[in-house]
Amino acid sequence: MQITIYHYLAVSTILFVLGIYALISRKNAILILMGIELILNACNINLIAFSKYGGLGIDGQVIAIFVIILAVAEAAIGLAIIINIYNNFSTVNVDEVNSLKE
């Protein structure tokens, strides 16, 4: 069996849908960050697949590396914000955090 672009797109779609589901249904800030990471990984799979099958050459892979770097920066900043919220409110549930001015 030959792996085609449709296989990559199917896996990417599944990851994207799971990421959106995590964003919509979760109240825990850490799980919301994990959902964002799933969405970014789905984007990376698409970039690599189109780079391989779409004739983009190395450009898709270079852009995927930049997306990985942005995901690392987002995770570091997001976790710092979550730690600050936990220190102030003793919870990481986004529904229980009403104000950041306290």
Brief synopsis:
The chain is mainly α and 102 residues long. It has helices at 5-25, 29-53, 59-89.
Task: List the SSEs and their pairings.
Elements: H1 5-25, H2 29-53, H3 59-89
Helix pairs in contact: 1-2, 2-3
Major sheet size, sense and barrel closure: none
Which secondary-structure class do the elements indicate?
mainly alpha
The 3D shape can be described as: elongated
The averaged pLDDT comes out at 86
What is the CATH domain class?
A: Mainly Alpha
- State the distance separating the first and last CA atoms: 59 Å
What's the total count of β strands? 0
CATH topology: Helix Hairpins
Q: Uncertain runs with pLDDT below 50, 5 residues or more?
A: none
Question: What key phrases describe this protein's structure?
Answer:
single chain, 102 residues, Helix Hairpins, 3 helices
Walkthrough of the structure:
By secondary structure, this protein is an all-alpha fold. The chain has one domain: Helix Hairpins (Orthogonal Bundle). It is built from three helices and no strands. Helix 1 runs antiparallel to helix 2 (about 30-55) and helix 2 (about 30-55) packs antiparallel against helix 3.
